[in-house]
Design goal:
Layout lengths: L1 H31 L4 E17 L2 E16 L20 H31 L11
Antiparallel strand pairs: 1-2
Amino acid sequence: MSDFLISVAAVAVVLGFMILIHEFGHYAVAKLLKVRVEVFSIGFGKRLLGFRKGDTDYRISAIPLGGYVKMSGENPMDERTGDPAEFMSHSRWHRFLIAIAGPSMNILLAIFLLTVGASRLAARRPDREGRWH
């Protein structure tokens, strides 16, 4: 039973890290392009803990099935104020870059992990008795 719980915890940590990297991609590009980020959340639903810095509320939420970055003015159904820090006030190209940044970070993470794994594997050599080190 304890092996099962350890496995579940390991999966949760790995998925949490992948979600963090993905959402950070959206967040970083939005900040770089001067889009106001209102919420950076790991998880959905009710806020469990976190802190506010500047305009952004950084939080961990109750339902750990993903995450999100809420940007000011991102809903096209909302009335636009014309504030240059709103998502919809930016060009299509900027909005595209913000949208693609999350999946791009996941791809970069995969390349990094494969590179590290391959380099560690390539560094292993058998000794005179044929044992790998």
